[in-house]
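for the writeup, i need someone to sanity check this before i put it in the appendix. the sequnce is what the collaborator sent (i think, or maybe the updated version? ugh). structure was predicted straight from it, no edits. if anything looks off just tell me and ill rerun, i have time this weekend
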Amino acid sequence: MGFKCGIVGLPNVGKSTLFNALTRTAAAQAANYPFCTIEPNVGEVAMPEPRLEVLAKIAGSKEIIPTRMNFVDIAGLVRGASKGEGLGNQFLANIRECDAVVYVLRCFENDDITHVEGRIDPIADLETVETELMLADLESLEKRVLNLEKKAKGGDKEAKLTLDLVLRAKALLEEGRPARHVKRAPEEQKAFEMLQLLTALPVLYVCNVDEAHAANGNEQSRRVEARARQEDAACVVICAQMEAEFAALNDEEQAEFLAAAGLTESGLTRLIHAGYDLLGLSTYFTVGPKEARAWTIHKGWTAPQAAGVIHGDFEKGFIRAETIAYDDFVKFNGEVGAKEAGKMRLEGKEYVVREGDVMHFRFSS
């Protein structure tokens, strides 16, 4: 189950530097984990997961397979991208394939790196990016209205539902607000997602600061953080240049690098975790002598849905899930000890998987 975060930003804000740091991280991880071949504009990065290492050690697993997240470098965003300026059409097509959008915002001063707008103002940059996405969404919705109205007048119930959503989203966009703020009932969610609106995607703001402010941010990044709270968006402070240097170091050098910078973990680790949280994702584990593996699911998924991530037949033929909480697995030194202590639970089809569950599925073929 792969997830994609599209990285967008104006020229000279540090987007490429950040993406290069991500792809270097992916290349470094490839020596330890099995990764698929990735396209030049996609960085597939392992989700940092210390618990997986612990589980593998207890179970004597030969292989460790973490869950992963894809970061897509989306080129072509300039003012006018919604009208096809720059690589506008390619930009819009790529972003529609993503699960969330990462806005890289320049929060650093550097006279050697000019800003396309001639000023350093991350909020203005944010609004430029958002405006292009909203204009593209408006154009998309306006093209649908006439056809939906005809179908709705003909008694098409699905068209009526979609038209109502389209008009509500259109009105909000015309007010200058992104489509993710459209109020909708749970039963409307699927139809809303089918609209494929760019501004309906969850947003993560990355404040790219200079090295001196990597640990605590600066005045500009604090402005973005305040905006993120208003928008119900996520926000991470990163020095992209530092991250690029960090990604090229070995483990021991990385630890020294973080300590010297006053950081406990890399900005990329925080970015990956923030993306994971933003998308409402959760992790469960399968553990055995062959491999210890992390699996990504949405929070609130049931045991059969979680089993389906491994294979569709597991979900179709689901019987039960033998489940041990991570803490119990560690405390009682593995499956046998946890079972003897009465900590293994047999969960059925209605069970909602909890973060960190260690699971073994029983199913009929």
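The first strand starts at residue 4 and ends at 8. The CA atoms of residues 152 and 160 lie 5 Å apart.
thx in advance!!
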